[in-house]
Design a protein that fits this description.
Layout (H helix, E strand, L loop, with lengths): L4 E2 L5 H15 L13 E10 L4 E9 L2 E8 L2 E12 L4 E4 L7 E5 L4 E5 L3 H19 L15 E4 L2 E3 L26 E2 L6 E2 L6 E4 L7 E4 L1 H8 L6
Antiparallel strand pairs: 1-2, 2-3, 2-8, 3-4, 4-5, 6-7, 7-8, 9-10, 11-12, 13-14
GO molecular function: phosphatidylinositol binding; zinc ion binding
Keywords: Metal-binding, Zinc, Zinc-finger
Protein name: FYVE-type domain-containing protein
Length: 233
């Protein structure tokens, strides 16, 4: 399983010690996590669906952040490749595949799928994250998503979430024109919908501010939607 641990604050010294331990696990490569008002709510080891394969990640849920990193080979106490997501605008949903043991985290800057050890553990992660988002934002409705969409979506209030990328192994063909991928015709991901597309179907770029201030590759379908003039009210 994920080794999920939820902490109920008994005193501030315990919380400070836990956060310091997380900081130390990332060494000098991590950001400062200890600050007034921040609470470590839960932690556990999960499998993250990456572009080519699933990889182990140590995940830490704070009352305002979701932090994760990769265990260092040969030293499971050390973590590298720290990623920090602000909980503002985050939504989660448990998936039906894999017996319900997986769930998605969708944020404006990055979205992805995580596997827990069981459907029960996945449900707990979803519950904990939603609770923290609701407490952080003061609105419980923003933390839940039941649309089933993997593409970029409106969070409400003008905030847009990044798409969950379709893994490379999910399709051998372009999801727009059905061209077969090969060493010559390579896979690309549309940064707006997350689909696997060929180069001819993704010649355009667009600035997606929550993800990057540089233009990112988008598929023809998304480019047409993004470039379409807004309808007057």
């Amino acid at each position: 399983m994920s080794g999920l641990s939820r902490f109920r604050m008994s005193n501030s010294e315990q919380n400070i010690e836990r956060i310091r331990r997380v900081e130390q696990s990332f060494g000098s490569s991590g950001v400062t996590l200890l600050q007034t008002g921040r609470v470590l709510v839960a932690e556990g080891t999960l499998l993250k669906v990456c572009r080519r394969r699933t990889q182990k990640r140590r995940v830490f849920l704070f009352n305002d952040l979701l932090v994760y990193g990769s265990p260092l080979a040969g030293d499971c106490q050390r973590l590298v490749q720290q990623r920090v997501l602000q909980l503002a605008g985050v939504q989660t949903r448990q998936l039906a595949d894999e017996g319900g043991a997986s769930f998605q985290v969708m944020s404006p800057s990055k979205s992805f799928t995580l596997f827990a050890g069981s459907a029960e553990d996945a449900a707990k992660w979803v519950e904990f994250i939603r609770s923290c988002v609701a407490d952080h934002s003061g609105d419980s409705s923003v933390a839940s998503d039941s649309t089933g969409s993997t593409g970029a979506s409106d969070c409400g209030g003008g905030v847009v979430r990044a798409p969950v990328w379709v893994p490379d192994g999910r399709s051998s063909n372009c999801m727009l024109c059905s061209a077969t991928f090969s060493l010559i015709s390579r896979r690309h991901h549309c940064r707006n919908c997350g689909f696997l597309v060929c180069s001819p179907c993704s010649q355009h770029t667009w600035v997606l501010p929550a993800q990057s201030d540089q233009p990112l590759r988008v598929c023809d379908t998304c480019y047409s939607l993004l470039a379409e003039p807004a309808s007057p009210n």
